[in-house]
Amino acid sequence: MTHKHIMPFGLLAKIWLALLALTGVTVGVASVDLGYLNVLAAMAVASTKALLVVLFFMHLKYENRALGAFVILVFVILAIFIGFTFFDVAWRPEGGA
Amino acid sequence: MPSPGETVPFLDPYPGRSGILSWIFSTDHKRIGMLYLWSILTMFAVGVVIGVLMRLELIAPGRTIMGAQTYNAMFTLHGVVMIFLFVIPGIPAAFGNILLPLQIGAEDVSFPRLNIFSWWLYLTGAALAVTSLFTGGGPPDTGWTFYVPFSERTTTNVSLAVVAVFILGFSSILTGLNFITTIHRLRAPKMSWGKLPLFVWSLYATAWIQLLATPVLGITVALVFIERLLGIGLFDPARGGDPLLYQHLFWIYSHPAVYIMIVPAMGVVSDIIPAFARKSIFGYKAIAVSSLAIAFAGSLVWAHHMFTSGMSDTAVMVFSFLTFVVAIPSAIKVFNWVATLYKGSIYLEPPLLFSLGFIFLFSAGGLTGLVLGSAGTDIHVHDTYFVVAHFHYVIFGGTGFGLFAAMHFWFPKIFGRMYDRKLANASWYLLIGGFNMLYFPMFIIGLMGMPRRYYDYLPMYQTGHMVSTVGSWVLVAGLVTMFWGLSKCFHGPRTVGRNPWGAATLEWTLPSPPPHLTFLDPPDEVPSPYSYEGVKRDD
Amino acid sequence: MTEHHKDYLGDKFGMWLFLFTEILLFGGLFLLYSVYLHRYPAEFHQAGLELSRVFGTANTIVLITSSFTVAMAISALQQGRRVLCQGLLASTIVLAGVFMVNKYFEWSAKIGHGIYPGSPELVDGPGGTNIFFGLYYVMTGAHGLHVVIGAALLGFCMLRIGQGRVTADDFGLLENGGLYWHLVDLVWIFLFPLFYLIS
Q1: pTM (2 decimals)?
Q2: CA within 20 to 30 Å of A68's CA: B43, B203, B402, C131, which one?
Q3: Given a contact as 3+ CB pairs under 8 Å, which chains touch B?
Q4: Candidates A88, A90, A91; nearest CB to B244
Q5: CB atoms within 10 A of CB A93
Q6: Domain B19-110+189-216+261-509: assigned CATH number
């Protein structure tokens, strides 16, 4: 094993604390009524948490670029699957469902 | 001093290991490919028999040899067997397994044990699919699409059938995973991306679709199972659900799945045509990139199967437009194949014949696909025999003929024996003739309004149905002739040399059949895959 | 035949590809969730109130912490600190157990109130509510299954480390087990706000 890159405990602990803090933030924001913005805020926080997990816990930041590109591709494809379905459901005539 | 593994042909027992166990637990990609080959050909035979029986029922109006319920079970079974057990594993799992490592100069695939595990999953799925016919409430009668709400309500054994599909899906995913990793990690050091044979490029694109689209099918059929078990109502309007979402999820997989079926066949044809035109492939990069483009664009068009389902008009227009976009990369390939043939020094051997059959039938299927992709005309022909004809032109005429081409191209390499070329040529005429006689009338009766999936019809459609049924007999005669010719590969002395066609990809530098162990050390020199200068025929 | 050459990067790449399939498997469910949230915002809001935010938050903390311990376990193994690594893995598995026990109490409380898939209360009630809880059971159920599989996988890693077959120089298996575990965490990171904080 030539390219052993060891994640230092300190950095992992920082990420852990950040994730806990973000959990606090998202619970806090949820208790304020912002209407539809609540969902957006919750998703924004969740995505940030996911990014931290993927980059550091899952070590993606230190892997080669191609793998990073593939991960992005996967989420783009998933976004397309969900997003394009809305071409249908968001424009369904009233009562036509 | 080479070890026995490097000299004994992989079809023969490795010293000290023989018998069935040395096959069904083999981790050798070539043997696993053979397991798949025999499995899919068996399933093909089953599917053909069912298809012929259905055609026989349809030779005259009214009940001929079976009733409505049996016919429903028949078309369901024909679809499930042909799609999930024959066409999808088809070329990638059989020829891909055998050839991918050889073509990139690798010793094996990245995960040999996972590879045999996928075959076992395939076998389990096949066994469960067959079991579903004889257990529970009788054979499933939903069609291979398992549309809700019927699939949730019917008393037939849909639950077991969807479990089978789930397992088959995972088999397909694991093959795709294996191939992507292999192509990324195990290419010979000098095998750059630009030197990959186009068959490998097509497998690569296919593998990505297998990997990213199949899980959606997995969760979809799992939901059908859960609904049958618990009755949550996720797709049931009476309980707040939306049945159209089932169709979205199903086609999010099943449209890309038609590219899982067709792209490997395109790869086969891309490898064969230059070898028999003695001319480097025209537009290597365009063909390679168009495979990836098909894989990507093919993921954007699924709802064109749903134009009449009641989804929003916006979606109809968007998906209709995108469908036309996906025709472009397919057309790029056809133009490049034709351009490769232009002014080539052509010798018309069976593999090239079948490839030309592919181009002709696939083009007919592809162009009629545009009739269906355009929302206005689709409304008229939706759920008619026009769709059945289109689909069979693309998948049987395309993938089927691609597989036949692959068999005639690579069987001499795999078995070390040549098939009967005269029979192969004769079978081609029977197959092309029978095929068009079987499926072309379906375009016409489809346009006249004959709906699909009925065991009975009005007398006005009888001529078309009768011609079609007779065509099915010609086609079967063609298949019998073809396999009769190919059976010459299975016995007798091995006389074929390393390179009977004078092709330039790496597998032709190996003995026929290849030994158990190949490319233990990666090859020093990697040829340009379509440069025939200095390539000697050795038959 | 000869032993297959070990390809550390290839193994890891293969694991990532497998995670992609998991993402898309759950993706199908997230698709359903998005569409139904769009259709029934009020009912989802109302139904979300019935889930215990305390349980949800506790389980989120448990899973995040377990992700942290598994990440540390990998670092510990790479540094050759085998005992520490085993301890961290054991705590990860314990946390997985805690998660599942929490889940058990949560589910049984709901079921006790007549809220379970296909229950008369849901089926005859408003459609949006039925769909919310239907998705809740399917998605957290699928996730729970992954928790169990992930914990088993980490247990297998512990075994292999104990046998000395996974070591400071050959840690690929543990790394891949860790990747799977992080995926389990990743899915929960999205499930938590969608079900527990939607109100």
Answers
A1: 0.96
A2: B203
A3: A, C
A4: A88
A5: 9
A6: 1.20.210.10
